[in-house]
TrEMBL record:
Pfam families: Hydrolase_6, Hydrolase_like. It comes from Mucuna pruriens (Velvet bean). It comes from the Eukaryota. The lineage of its organism: Eukaryota, Viridiplantae, Streptophyta, Embryophyta, Tracheophyta. PANTHER family: 4-NITROPHENYLPHOSPHATASE-RELATED, HALOACID DEHALOGENASE-LIKE HYDROLASE DOMAIN-CONTAINING PROTEIN 2. Its EC number is 3.1.3.18. This is phosphoglycolate phosphatase. Keywords: Acetylation, Chloroplast, Hydrolase, Phosphoprotein, Photorespiration, Plastid, Transit peptide. One of its GO terms (cellular component) is chloroplast.
Length: 368
C-alpha cells in the first residue's frame, strides 16, 4: 500500500455566488473558481482552503471533525507506484525540460513507462504555444509525443469557452502570445489583441478617450512578453464596461522557466495587473483548476484514482492532482526544493517526492 503515517489536518470551506451572465449559467460549479491554493475570491465563486497541522471544524452539535493528509514521503519503491496507476500526467517545465534543455534521463523513463502500457499525458500552464507548437518542441528534444497527448493552458482557454457555449458572435481579447490565438482560431472564435498590440502606445492628451470593441465577451490573459499599458487599459475597459464580459486566466504562476539559468516572472504577473485594475478575480482554466483534469478524464475515459500527477510546483501541479483526486509525485528538478517542501509553513503535501523522474529507473533497479 502507498501510504504514510505522519498526519496533518486540513479544513476546506466552499462558497458559491450566483452569476447573472447569460452564458455563464451552463458552467459546471466546480469550474467556477479562481485558485483553491491562493485563498482568493473569484468573480463568480470562491473556494477557500486552509491547511494546518492542528486544526478542526465544529459541527452544530459542537463535535470537532478532522480531515487528514499524510506528509510527503520520499519515493522508495517506484514499481509499486507505477503498478498502482494507469496514467501519468506530467508537467513540462521543470519536469521534462528546463528552458530548451531536456532534463537528464527523461527519454529512457518515458520509454520504460510506455513499455509497461502506461498512458502518458503532458500538461503545461505555459500558454505561449499551441498543442501543435508544443508537439514540435517535443520532437526537437528527441521525444516521441503526439499532439493528442499534450494539453497546454492555451488549449484549455479555448476548450473552456466551448464548454460554456460562449457565443460565436462575441469576440475574445487576448493578452498573451501566439499559442492562445492559434487555439482560439482552431475553436472557431473571433479574437483581437495578442502580440499585435505589443507595439501599441497610448498618447495621453487632455480629453483623450480610449475606444474599445463592445462585442468583446471575454478577456483571456496568459503569459505575455509583450505586455504593455495599452493592453492593460484595453482589457480593463472590456471587463469593466462590456456587460457580462468574462475574465479568464490561463494560470497564475508566479515564475516560469524561460531559460535554465534562472526563474523569470510568470503569467501571474500579467493576470495580477488586470485583476488590480478591474478589482475582479479571474476564472483560471490552467492548473490547479480541475477543468483540464475533468477534460482529460472524460476524453480518455480515465478513472482519476488511476492517475498520478507528476510536477515540480506545489501550488499548481500538486494541488491540481489533489483537487482531481489523483496520486501526486513532486520532483525536485524544477521550482520546489526539499527545504521548501519541508518548511513548516508549507501546507501542500504530495503523496511522494523524488529528485527527478528518471529516479523511476534507479529506484526500480534498487527495488529488484
Amino acid at each position: 500500500m502507498l501510504r504514510s503515517s505522519t498526519l496533518t489536518q486540513s479544513v476546506t470551506v466552499t462558497a458559491v455566488r450566483h452569476s447573472h451572465r447569460q452564458w455563464f449559467q451552463s458552467i459546471p460549479v466546480n469550474y467556477r473558481f479562481c485558485d483553491a491554493g491562493r485563498n482568493s475570491l473569484s468573480s463568480n465563486s470562491a473556494i477557500f482552503t486552509w491547511k494546518r497541522k492542528a486544526s478542526y471544524n465544529r459541527n452544530r452539535s459542537g463535535m470537532g471533525t478532522f480531515t487528514t493528509r499524510a506528509l510527503a514521503q520520499p519515493l522508495k519503491n517506484a514499481d509499486e507506484l507505477i503498478d498502482s496507476v494507469e496514467t501519468f500526467i506530467f508537467d513540462c517545465d521543470g519536469v521534462i525540460w528546463k528552458g530548451d534543455s531536456l532534463i537528464e534521463g527523461v527519454p529512457e523513463t518515458l520509454d520504460m513507462l510506455r513499455s509497461k502500457g502506461k498512458r502518458l499525458v503532458f500538461v503545461t500552464n505555459n500558454s505561449t504555444k499551441s498543442r501543435k507548437q508544443y508537439g514540435k518542441k517535443f520532437e526537437t528534444l528527441g521525444l516521441d509525443v503526439s499532439e493528442e497527448e499534450i494539453f497546454a493552458s492555451s488549449f484549455a482557454a479555448a476548450a473552456y469557452l466551448k464548454s460554456i457555449d460562449f457565443p460565436k458572435d462575441k469576440k475574445v481579447y487576448v493578452i498573451g502570445e501566439d499559442g492562445i490565438l492559434k487555439e482560439l482560431e482552431l475553436a472557431g472564435y473571433q479574437y483581437l489583441g495578442g502580440p499585435e498590440d505589443g507595439g501599441k502606445k497610448i498618447e495621453l492628451k487632455p480629453g483623450f478617450l480610449m475606444e474599445h470593441d463592445e462585442d468583446v465577451g471575454a478577456v483571456v490573459v496568459g503569459f505575455d512578453r509583450y505586455f504593455n499599458y495599452y493592453k492593460i487599459q484595453y482589457g480593463t475597459l472590456c471587463i469593466r464596461e462590456n456587460p457580462g464580459c468574462l475574465f479568464i486566466a490561463t494560470n497564475r504562476d508566479a515564475v516560469t522557466h524561460l531559460t535554465d539559468a534562472q526563474e523569470w516572472a510568470g503569467g501571474g504577473s500579467m493576470v495580477g495587473a488586470i485583476s488590480g485594475s478591474t478589482q475582479r478575480e479571474p476564472l483560471v482554466v490552467g492548473k490547479p483548476s480541475t477543468f483540464m483534469m475533468d477534460y482529460l478524464a472524460n476524453k480518455f475515459g480515465i478513472s482519476k484514482s488511476q492517475i498520478c500527477m507528476v510536477g515540480d510546483r506545489l501550488d499548481t501541479d500538486i494541488l491540481f492532482g489533489q483537487n482531481g483526486g489523483c496520486k501526486t509525485l513532486l520532483v525536485l528538478s524544477g521550482v520546489t526544493t526539499l527545504p521548501m517542501l519541508q518548511n513548516p509553513n508549507n501546507s501542500i503535501q504530495p503523496d511522494f517526492y523524488t529528485n527527478k523522474i528518471s529516479d523511476f529507473l534507479s529506484l526500480k533497479a534498487a527495488a529488484v
